[in-house]
Structures are given as C-alpha cells and as structure tokens.
Design a protein that fits this description.
Number of helices: 3
Low-confidence stretches: none
Number of domains: 1
Largest sheet: 6 strands, mixed
Number of strands: 8
CATH topology: Structural Genomics Hypothetical 15.5 Kd Protein In mrcA-pckA Intergenic Region, Chain A
Distance between the termini: 47 Å
Structural class: alpha+beta
CATH superfamily: Ubiquitin-activating enzyme E1, UFD domain
Strand content: 25-35%
Order of helices and strands: EEEHEEHHEEE
CATH class: Alpha Beta
Helix content: 10-25%
Length: about 120
C-alpha cells in the first residue's frame, strides 16, 4: 500500500478581453440568464467573453456551427435552448433538470485566435 497526495489538475491559460484567464477542468462558466433563445445565448456569450462563436454543442449534439446549413441554423437561433436541444438531440429533457452542460468554441474578436474556454453550465430553469 502506498500513500500519496493528489496533484491539482493542469491549468489552462487563455486571454479573454485582453486579460489572462486561468482555469482547470474542474472549472466552468456559470450562465444564469434564463431559458433564452439560442441566438440570444450566442449574442450574450459573444459580448461577455469577446469571442466570435463558431460552435455550440450539447454532448454530441451540435446546436450551432458557423459552417452549418444556414436555414437550419436560422431556425434553431429562434428556438428556446431547451427546445433546440430536444430538437437536435431527439431527447426529452427531464422535468427536474435545471442545467445544461454546453461546450462553446470561438475566436477572439480582436486577434482572431481560438480562445480555449471551460465548459458552460447553463441554467435554463
């Protein structure tokens, strides 16, 4: 039997709005703006973190991609987040579920460099 102390997780550094942001896999971005539309979420997130969003996904379901079908993306942009996820993932969200775990990818608006951000914990209820 061996005793050891756990090591802290690896840290990732990125530049957001011109300032250094350090985070680990244990960190997340908490978003509590209500069950807004996908378009409103993207606008809020883009403004808050100064990024041009290229992709938003929920698990393996891709909700938005800048390279996706324009008509399909326009339809989803007008949908509330829970309905967009239900539509794309073909699942029904449980009535007691309060949060959605989203992965958001984007590029810094000022430098066009990809910004590495932690996952997003989105409260929709």
């Amino acid at each position: 039997m061996t005793l050891s102390e756990p090591q802290p997780p690896a840290k990732t550094e990125t530049i957001v709005k011109g300032e250094k942001m350090t985070w680990s896999p244990w960190d997340c971005i908490d978003v509590n703006i209500g069950n807004v539309t996908l378009g409103e979420f993207i606008t809020w997130y883009s403004d808050e973190y100064n990024v041009e969003i290229s992709m938003v996904s929920y698990g393996v379901a891709m909700l938005y991609s800048s390279f996706g079908n324009k008509d399909r993306m326009a339809k989803r942009m007008a949908m509330k987040m829970d309905l967009a996820i239900a539509d794309v993932s073909k699942t029904v969200l449980p009535a007691n579920q309060l949060f959605l775990v989203l992965e958001v990818m984007g590029d810094d608006r000022d430098t066009d460099e990809e910004v590495d951000l932690p996952y997003c914990k989105f409260r929709f209820r």
